[in-house]
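Tip: read the tokens left to right.
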């Protein structure tokens, strides 16, 4: 399912006066995006470092061009690899803002798609679907999640290769009006690029998103709860740490996404627990506090007990 995320308004273009790097940096409003990335995303230190490096390259390139030192537009297509819930879509959105504020894309919106948005089910269906998505993405960033599903060599009648060929053409011929970010599991993405050298040669920046540690996931949980106006009791805090350690060891763990789901279920249990007390007054503190029982009712603990741990 595709999604379009609109950008913030662009800053005024950089001036052509004396080259004050700090002033240019502040005027571009890129600092605001990078500071937001640092503030809003827990961990991801190597990712944040690479995004800062790319922003620096683009800013310096802009300053060079004011002196007639243009080296041609830098290659901007990217690959984001990592497990689910590691912040790839969020960082892609911030990257779109950076590109827009520095004038590398006209609009700076993000169009997020999967194979189903690009590939048709019969002859003649794929090209119009792909071109329609590209039309919507022009002037911004096209984010293709689980991009390796575009390539299915085991199926001779698959139309994914047609979508790839159209993407290749647009990535080359309209690279000054569109940035494409391919995303997915690292091993599968490596195979995907190895099987499509034409794509690989057009992707300049490969950024790997690491899994979060237990401490980082707990910090993410606290941030999510704060945004939702909830808090954990001290006992619930300890229970959530135990939950995270157990859940990380299970299949299909999706990092921050799994933590959000766990908190949603804890809120559900808290609401049910409070509802059982209807007829009695409930304090504000009770309304905002998730207790250990709300966490420990998870089937993750039941499965652990069932295995005799």
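Filled-in amino acids:
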């Amino acid at each position: 399912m595709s999604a379009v995320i609109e950008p913030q308004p662009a800053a005024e273009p950089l001036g052509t006066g004396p080259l004050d790097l700090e002033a240019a940096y502040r005027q571009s409003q890129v600092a605001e995006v990078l500071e937001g990335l640092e503030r809003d995303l827990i961990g991801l230190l190597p990712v944040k470092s690479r995004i800062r490096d790319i922003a620096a390259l683009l800013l310096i390139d802009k300053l060079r061009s004011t002196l007639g030192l243009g080296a041609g537009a830098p290659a901007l297509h990217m690959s984001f690899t990592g497990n689910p819930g590691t912040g790839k879509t969020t960082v892609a959105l911030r990257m779109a803002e950076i590109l827009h504020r520095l004038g590398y894309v006209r609009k700076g919106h993000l169009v997020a798609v999967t194979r189903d948005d690009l590939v048709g089910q019969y002859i003649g269906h794929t090209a119009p679907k792909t071109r329609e998505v590209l039309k919507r993405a022009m002037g911004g960033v096209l984010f293709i999640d689980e991009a390796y599903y575009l390539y299915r060599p085991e199926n001779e009648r698959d139309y994914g290769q047609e979508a790839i060929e159209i993407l290749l053409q647009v990535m080359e011929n309209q690279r000054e009006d569109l940035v494409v970010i391919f995303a997915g599991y690292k091993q599968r993405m490596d195979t995907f690029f190895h099987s499509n050298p034409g794509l690989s040669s057009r992707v300049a920046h490969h950024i790997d998103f690491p899994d979060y540690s237990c401490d980082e996931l707990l910090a993410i949980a606290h941030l999510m709860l704060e945004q939702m106006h909830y808090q954990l009791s001290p006992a619930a805090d300890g229970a959530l740490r135990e939950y995270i350690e157990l859940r990380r060891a299970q299949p299909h763990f999706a990092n921050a996404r799994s933590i959000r789901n766990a908190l949603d279920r804890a809120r559900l249990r808290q609401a049910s627990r409070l509802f059982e007390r209807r007829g009695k007054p409930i304090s504000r503190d009770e309304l905002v506090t998730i207790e250990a029982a709300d966490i420990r009712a998870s089937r993750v603990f039941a499965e652990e007990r069932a295995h005799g741990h």
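Residues 10-16 have pLDDT under 50 and may be disordered. The longest strand covers residues 179-184.
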